[in-house]
Amino acid sequence: MLSPQQQYRLTSSFDPDETTGGFAHGADPFLTSHNGIKIYGIPKRPAIPVQPQVHILGRGPLPQEHYGFPPDFEVQGIDHEDFHLPPHIPSEERESGASRFYQWHFDGSLYSIPPPRVGCLLAVRTPKGPDVTVRWDDGTGTEMKIAPGSTAMVAGSRALELLDDETRNIVMHSRIEYAPHAFVWMSTAHSTRLGHLLETEGLEKPLDKLPPWEKDKVCIYPMVWTNPKTGEKSLQVHGQGAFKLYLKDSPDGKEKVVDDLKEVRAFMNK
């Protein structure tokens, strides 16, 4: 089993030019301290004190003396009731195995700092029991069975293939602008029940209420990324952080700027 230090060294070896110290997410907020050691992150996703670039995802108490955490430290865990648009899954149905995807995303701060070349998940301990039923809850009735505690992955290359021809042609030549401090911006909004977009309710934090930000640090990325080794192209977008779209259907085509959030999300839902 890799230690947090080894896990960080493994991941950072793919990205030797990374200089932020937070490895693509920047500095976490201060959480607490123990024996003179400052602990960062949030209770639902704390940074490991001995290697703060590595976070713990899960729920429940940690072992004693676990890599610098205080005694009896407990990870709160994430819950769709904190983020998704109501109605939520009733407790009795959750007890029977009903579940949802919490959030579809790719790792990155979406502001100021470029995303990492490689991400790394290490399953230390996973829940045991029968498969859970993940519901789309988007009106289609779509469901799938997965093991409890699983993290679902989507291949961007496959996602690109699955688009219809018209949409694929557009994303091949288009860019996406993310909100400044995107995760703070979206923190007051509701996610869709599928976890891929935000609901358009006007609940995003106003730009003038965000932490200080600079226009030249706002991230504008292509929608399609190319593997520098193989040339394979992949769709890579973060639907919930999307703030503005720059759409083109050819390299020399006229660019259409979409800055109405409802229209932005309608396109991202294709």
Automatic annotation (TrEMBL):
Q: Which Pfam families match?
A: TauD (PF02668)
- The annotated region (Disordered) lies at 1-23
What family does the Swiss-Prot or TrEMBL record give for this protein?
Belongs to the TfdA dioxygenase family.
Q: In the UniProt record, does the keyword Metal-binding occur? A: yes
Report the cofactors.
Fe(2+)
Keywords for this protein: Dioxygenase, Iron, Metal-binding, Oxidoreductase
Cited InterPro entries: TauD-like_sf, TauD/TfdA-like, TfdA_dioxygenase
Biased composition, Polar residues: where in the chain? 1-14
Q: What is the lineage of its organism?
A: Eukaryota, Fungi, Dikarya, Ascomycota, Pezizomycotina
Q: What is this protein called?
A: Putative alpha-ketoglutarate dependent xanthine dioxygenase protein
Q: Does the keyword Cytoplasm apply?
A: no
Query: Gene3D superfamilies from the entry?
Result: Clavaminate synthase-like
Query: Per the database record, which ranges form the TauD/TfdA-like domain?
Result: 95-263
**Recorded GO terms, molecular function?**
dioxygenase activity; metal ion binding
